[in-house]
Design brief:
The protein is of the alpha+beta class. It folds into 2 domains: 103 residues, Ribosomal protein S3 C-terminal domain, CATH 3.30.1140; 137 residues, Alpha-Beta Complex (Aspartate Aminotransferase, domain 1). The strands form 3 sheets. Strands 6, 7, 8, 9, 10 and 11 form a 6-stranded antiparallel β-sheet that branches. Strands 3-4-5 form a 3-stranded antiparallel β-sheet, with no helix packed on it. Strands 1-2 form a two-stranded antiparallel sheet. Helix 1 runs antiparallel to helix 2 and helix 1 runs parallel beside helix 3. The chain starts with a helix and ends in a 6-residue tail after the last helix.
């Protein structure tokens, strides 16, 4: 296979990596390609795309919080420089090492920063209640548009599963609406390989108070609406899988064996199948 074809295949593997397993995939790809220089150069675009799509988080030097890496947080005109709106910093991000460097301060917009900060505070309180270990980042997009991003990861390789929750809410004050995207990915790999991938994109209206006055109270109301949508989505998923277990899977099984009689499993060891078969030989003409 030509090196370009190898890198195209490797990129597909990387983009399909389950949550928390990107390093395992990279190690496997490295064993296949056996050319570290080619690999590092060739997988950079795929790694960049994967990190942006998956809301990979990074520690900020000398700070005790993490920042979500995403297209919304990218500094205009710079491919790998991102904003940390909480600390009012920008930084360069290494997509291979997952590290931040070259940290620089920036001045936020005076008009939009108070409401962005209020949304951030309300979001941090929300994930503290519902997403232990979760990370959120809130960005200003325009004078009337904000992005709220949430990611929560659960890695449990000793029990053969991993999962990631991602959600993004584009709050448009001028339109009075919120465009949403909720994505869930789960990988279960004990004696098999099963992946779950769901996407939910609700759109809902902002409360009038949030449109007329952008303050801490309206920020809390917006987060309450987000909480309601996420709760509805989780409850719908729980009901779907309950119905699947109770109805769909059971529908794949025979209600009765082919002889149209239920089998008494408590007495199965007492059945004398040989004797019964011997007694039926005459009926079939020996």
């Amino acid at each position: 296979m030509h090196p370009d074809e190898q890198m195209a295949v490797a990129a597909k593997f990387i983009l399909q990596s389950p949550p928390g397993e990107i390093n395992d995939v990279l190690n496997d790809v490295r064993n296949i390609i056996s050319d570290d220089e080619l690999l590092q150069e060739g997988v950079q675009p795929a790694l960049r795309q994967y990190n942006l799509e998956q809301f990979v988080v990074v520690d900020i030097p000398e700070h005790d919080h993490q920042v979500i890496i995403s297209d919304v947080g990218r500094v205009e005109g710079e491919q790998d420089r991102f904003r940390d709106p909480q600390a009012k910093l920008t930084f360069h991000f290494d997509h291979l090492r997952l590290e931040a460097s070259d940290v620089q301060a920036y001045e936020p917009d005076e008009d939009t920063e108070p409401f962005r900060s209020a949304l951030e505070k309300a979001t941090l309180a929300y994930i503290g209640d519902h997403f232990p270990g979760g990370v959120s980042t809130v960005h200003t997009i325009t004078a009337s548009k904000y992005a709220i991003q949430i990611v929560a990861n659960k890695y449990n390789p000793s029990n053969f599963w991993s999962g990631r929750w991602r959600s993004e809410y584009i709050v448009d004050i001028s339109e009075g609406k919120v465009q949403s995207k909720i994505l869930i990915n789960v990988h279960y790999f004990e004696q098999g390989n099963v992946q779950l991938s769901t996407t939910f994109t609700p759109v809902f209206d902002l409360p009038p108070a949030a449109v007329s006055s952008q303050n801490a109270s309206s920020a809390s109301k917006i987060i309450a609406l987000i909480e309601a949508r996420e709760s509805e989505h989780q409850e719908a998923m729980i009901q779907t899988y309950f119905d699947m277990s109770e109805k769909t899977f059971k529908g794949l099984r025979r209600a009765l064996p082919i002889m149209r009689q239920k089998l008494d499993w408590d007495k199965v060891t007492g059945y004398k199948l040989g004797a019964e078969l011997a007694g039926t030989r005459g009926a079939f003409g020996n």
